[in-house]
Specification:
The chain has 223 residues and is mostly helical. Helix content is 73%, strand content 0%. It is built from nine helices and no strands.
Length: 223
């Protein structure tokens, strides 16, 4: 019913918003990725509340691939950084873990919905179809704020882990020579690149036509 849909819409938007805000202030690597998962589950429920069930399932599939990659990369980093999960003790890990850095940033970009990566095909479609529904400016604004929160905590995680100053923790560079650790990461990185269009063609045999004003069309990319 419309009442259930409205209730689910409100809960999903609040879930996306709260998990995004908490992730920005979190320092535990695994908790940040777990909160990110919660945010994306909110996005799936948001899609269901609009009646876009197939699209929610599509986002579930693409999200599973790049989020599995994120968790595996986090595991390698924790193992290589002396079993610590605190990102404040990381810093400058791109020098010791160049391959994991590339793969994790690929997963982060896919999570943010950067064009032509796996997350873009499902996330952008949900956002654009949501823009066609007349839920009012508040829901649209909250949705775009939640999108920008995803980008914020992803950029913060990348900066503190790979780019920022060294935090003083121990670091073992040997991890990347262990193929049982790095092998699955490389395979999932490849799927994060190509799975978006492939799953899109499998799920939606006919192309989805969306007509939006220019400012809404560019909105998702801008945020």
């Amino acid at each position: 019913s419309s009442t259930c849909s409205a209730l689910l819409l409100f809960i999903s938007i609040m879930t996306m918003f709260m998990s995004g805000v908490v992730a920005i202030f979190e320092y535990d690597l695994k908790k940040i990725i777990a909160l990110s998962t919660l945010s994306q589950l909110g996005m799936m429920m948001f899609s269901i509340s609009l009646g876009l069930y197939e699209l929610a399932f599509f986002h579930l599939l693409t999200h599973a691939l790049f989020k599995a990659l994120l968790f595996l990369c986090a595991g390698v980093l924790i193992h290589g950084a002396g079993n610590t999960q605190d990102i404040r003790s990381f810093g400058g890990l791109s020098l010791n873990f160049p391959l994991v850095t590339v793969c994790m940033n690929l997963a982060n970009l896919s999570l943010c919905g950067v064009p032509f990566l796996a997350g873009f095909y499902s996330k952008d479609l949900i956002v654009e179809l949501a823009c066609q529904y007349s839920w009012g400016i508040f829901i649209l604004l909250m949705m775009f704020i939640c999108l920008s929160l995803t980008v914020l905590y992803s950029v913060r995680l990348t900066y503190l882990s790979f780019v920022g100053p060294y935090g003083g923790g121990t670091s073992i560079s040997v991890c990347e020579s262990d193929y049982s650790l790095v092998g699955p990461v490389v395979i999932l990185s490849f799927t994060s690149l190509v799975s978006g269009p492939i799953l899109s063609w499998l799920n939606f045999p006919a192309p989805v036509l969306i007509f939006l004003p220019a400012f809404l069309k560019w909105g998702a990319l801008f945020f």
